[in-house]
Design brief:
The protein has 2 helices and 15 strands. It is elongated and about 55 Å long. It has 2 domains: 138 residues, Sandwich (Jelly Rolls); 75 residues, no CATH class. The longest helix has 20 residues. It is mainly beta.
Length: 261
């Protein structure tokens, strides 16, 4: 199915020409509203020469895709995207992560066909494009998708190689820094209204070690919530919280907790 964004031309013949790029036909430039979960940083804010990225593939024909990366409050991230994809390859129109204002959108304030991201499953989407530096102002899993109406993704094609750099890590001894999170977070959810949340992680290095890491992380999360999501301003004493229950299934430990203010 062909999708067009605010194209004023009605006839199919001219629309086809417009799709091939012989006529300029697009939407007005997008404006990005404030996103409280992230803060966009300057292009030179992160020096990636000393960082080792995690690289994932983001498909054009899928909705939100988890990066498998759990971000911490105050963490600085750089995302770089390479490759080509298209929301309608039959029209022979392809782009990289920058997308095109010609294409329709799932999120109106982000360029059509562009790479977009969100922090947390209920977070607001923000534009990545070819690259973006940002600071996480909350805890959560990082998700990516092409900004194309999700109900029309069946005819999309292509994928991007997305490299995620974090400046919060540990030195490998050769001048490089690897991501600090050795524990693989499977899922994280938090309800600001009830103060209840859950954290799931794959057990690595033993149950006790994994649980200790999770409890420390829950303390950081609780502290962050206590200071109203002011990035990087967690209390040195850690946050107050109560473990509601915990369970282990298929090698994954899940802890349900509630923050106490």
């Amino acid at each position: 199915m062909h999708r067009f964004s605010h194209c004023p031309i009605k006839t199919l013949t001219v629309i086809a020409i417009c799709a091939l790029g012989t006529i300029s036909c697009g939407s007005t430039p997008v404006k990005t509203p404030m996103n409280t979960r992230i803060t966009v940083l300057n292009d030179n804010a992160i020096n990636i020469d000393r960082l080792t990225p995690k690289t994932i593939k983001v498909a054009a024909d899928k909705g939100w895709q988890s990066s498998g990366i759990f971000l911490s409050n105050g963490e600085h991230i750089k995302v770089k995207a390479t490759g080509k994809w298209s929301p309608s390859p039959i029209l022979l129109q392809w782009s990289g992560g920058e997308g095109s204002t010609f294409w329709a959108t799932e999120v109106d304030n982000i360029t059509g066909g562009a790479l977009m991201a969100k922090l947390g499953h209920d977070g607001d989407a923000f534009e990545i494009g070819l690259n973006r530096n940002f600071q996480a102002n909350d805890y959560g899993m990082l998700y990516f998708a092409m900004n194309d109406p999700f109900k029309w993704q069946f005819d999309n094609s292509g994928e991007l190689d997305v490299a995620i750099y974090s400046d919060t890590g540990t030195s490998t001894g050769n001048g490089k820094t690897t991501p600090a999170t050795a524990t693989e977070v499977i899922a994280y959810n938090y309800n600001d209204k009830t103060g209840k949340g859950s954290l799931s992680a794959r057990i690595s290095g033993g149950h006790f070690k994994t649980r200790n890491w999770m409890i420390k992380k829950i303390g950081e999360i609780s502290s962050s919530k206590r200071v109203a999501l002011n990035a990087g301003k967690e209390s040195l004493q850690g946050g107050n919280y109560q473990v509601l229950d915990e369970s282990t299934r298929n090698g994954v430990l899940t802890i349900h907790f509630q923050t106490l203010y």
